[in-house]
Design goal:
161 residues, 27% strand, four-stranded antiparallel sheet, single chain, alpha+beta, 2 domains
């Protein structure tokens, strides 16, 4: 018995893309877009990014103090580096241990305005309830001399001004 094809192939049905061709095109586009994204990085705002990172740093340090029921203090190390130490109580003179995983180093071209602080000065200490011993204000300055301020309240809140 002869076979009849009721749906003969037309020219338009042969002009599509196979799944493999489509995946190759998407992979090439993904590579091109990621290269473009890396090249657009210089257009980012280093001052804004550094301010957000610093705010996140203080929030993370506070959460670590609460979650571990320990005292965590932040020390001004250099004009672009803050270090973290922990002990049982904020008033402890000895027994402080460094927590290098929490340290903050600002990106190149952005520094803390160090006019109010000296190296190795304790900026603040978060107790086990998340309260700060000091109400501090940090100013962050970029290479163009633009600045942003960040304040840590006694209750532990961090505000970017």
């Amino acid at each position: 018995m002869p076979s009849y094809n009721y749906f003969p192939e037309s020219k338009s049905s042969c002009q599509g893309l196979t799944l493999i061709e489509l995946l190759v095109i998407l992979a090439i586009l993904g590579i091109i877009i990621s290269i473009m994204g890396m090249n657009l990085r210089p257009f980012g705002n280093d001052l804004e990014n550094a301010t957000q990172e610093t705010a996140g740093f203080f929030k993370q340090t506070r959460v670590k103090a609460i979650s571990s029921t320990s005292a965590y203090r932040v020390i001004f190390n250099t004009d672009n580096h803050l270090i973290v130490e922990h002990a049982i109580f904020c008033k402890d003179e000895e027994g402080w241990q460094r927590d290098a995983k929490l340290d903050l180093e600002l990106r190149e071209g952005v520094v803390f305005n160090s006019k109010d602080f000296t190296n190795e000065e304790v900026l603040l200490c978060f107790n086990s309830r998340g309260f700060s011993t000091e109400n501090i204000e940090l100013e962050i300055v970029d290479a163009k001399n633009n600045s942003k301020a960040l304040e840590v309240y006694l209750g532990g809140a961090v505000v970017i001004k």
